[in-house]
Amino acid sequence: MRDSEFFGHVTAVAPGKVNLSLRVGPLRADGYHNVATLYYAVSLYEEVVATPRQDGAITVQLSERSAFTAVEHTDPESGEKVTAQIPLDERNLAHRAAVLLRETLQERDAVTLSFPGAERSTYGVDLTITKNVPIAGGMGGGSADAAAALVACSALWEAGLTKEQLAELGSQLGADVPFAILGGAAVGQGAGENLSPLLTRGELHLVIVPATTGLSTPEVYRKLDAMRHQAGLFAEEPELDQDLVRAACTGEAELVATLMANDLQAPAVSMLPELDEMMDAGLAEGALQGMVSGSGPTVVFLARDASAANQLSTGLEESLDVWALPVTGPAHGARLL
Q: Which residues carry out catalysis?
């Protein structure tokens, strides 16, 4: 008996991530950039519930338990603040993940179920997403949705695919999706999709401060290119600091704090100057280091230990009236509940 027949649905979770280091190379001919990044999964999870449909349709909806449902951003043409809702159609990354997996399985069915009378699945599903990772915040929330959708639908449809196979499939959806499936810590190269998982034997304690305003990742990259051009700087091929990689694997917070770096921080701060004030406030409250997460505008602070992270979280919430979330890492990758 399928789990979905017994429970009526399948539930999977996948973690958000921070980039403890993000080095960006020159603009490539295809419009992307080579990067060298240290992915670090944190204990902030997206949840996707997959419920079977018999009509072959794929739908997406948000759970009422979602911590994040929309985000403000600045319209690049008008310069006005507008509220962007999460798309619940084919633009949603979880929807695209389900479609991609369905197409893959249908191609396999065409070969394995070619004999008369073979039963074919409709591969229909209702996806319900509970969003706990900030939207447009540089933490890979949409990629985590896609990762959880792949794992949930794979179980629902009894695909029999391994995590590695799902990660390879997920690479067609975006550079962060394979990492959300695998979790832990990893070095990412190429556009971020070439992953080298790391063995870790220590943990880090962080505090995440979501922003109320989102930033477009492509726009932040374009701003970086413009700033480099204006300054007459030529970007070299990116490399990671190996001391940082070792310190992150062993959980040496003090050393990690001195080596964290993000080439996208400067353009993100130029677009949202209040990020600078937020990072200064975190340092004043005792953080070892503060940095924009990925393309921003979420800010991540590194704390000495769990107690310090809780104190930092409380201090930031009381002094700035913000939402500050203590998290740990490295967190597990996408998995069934």
A: 17, 176
